[in-house]
Amino acid sequence: MVKQLEELRAENERLTKELKELNERHDYLRAYCEVTETAEARLCPTNINWALNYVKDYNLCAYDNYYSAGIYLSEALESFQEKYEDIEKSEKYREFIGREGLFLAIGDKVLEEANSFLEGRGLKEFNKVNFYSDGVNLSIDNNQEHLKEELDTLLKELDLNEIEQELSVREGRNESFFNYKHLIYLINASYGEE
Hints:
The chain is mainly alpha-helical. It has one domain (about 1-190). The chain has helices at about 1-40, 45-55, 65-85, 90-100, 100-120, 145-155, 160-170, 175-190, and strands at about 130-135, 140. Strands 1-2 form a two-stranded antiparallel ribbon. Helix 5 crosses helix 8 (about 175-190). The longest helix has about 40 residues, at about 1-40. The radius of gyration is 20 Å and the shape is globular. The relative contact order is 0.11. The mean pLDDT is about 85. Keywords: Coiled coil.
């Protein structure tokens, strides 16, 4: 009887792990489809994978899963495509969006969300940030000294640890705050202060 119970527990653990993997795969495929439908361009599966992982790994989306990352990336692409609506149908644009454009769209959304967070706190928003992407990652063009100065001013006005504690007490996640933190990370990385 004890041996059967142990076997059932082991089988249950195996099936639970398998179900978790299947759910993650399902979320990934839903996200992949969402992004390809939104992009209306030739997207390399590898680039989509990198972009989805980037969003998920840096906690930029509402929930820590691929489906949420797909929604985030789709929203970023929609906004990015509206910005470049006049050239959206050109072949060069379609190639661009399929490579570094995915990450530049993420950068624009990070800035938008970070500014939303700052606006909600009654603080000055970042005016312009020039992002750079090699199609695999996102960074900030380091010829923007004003960004470091703006960030230093903001960090004097905000206690990130206090905000993080305040948010951890509430239910859910504050997507804008995590995007603000990521923008801080990108600015600091650009100026060698990770």
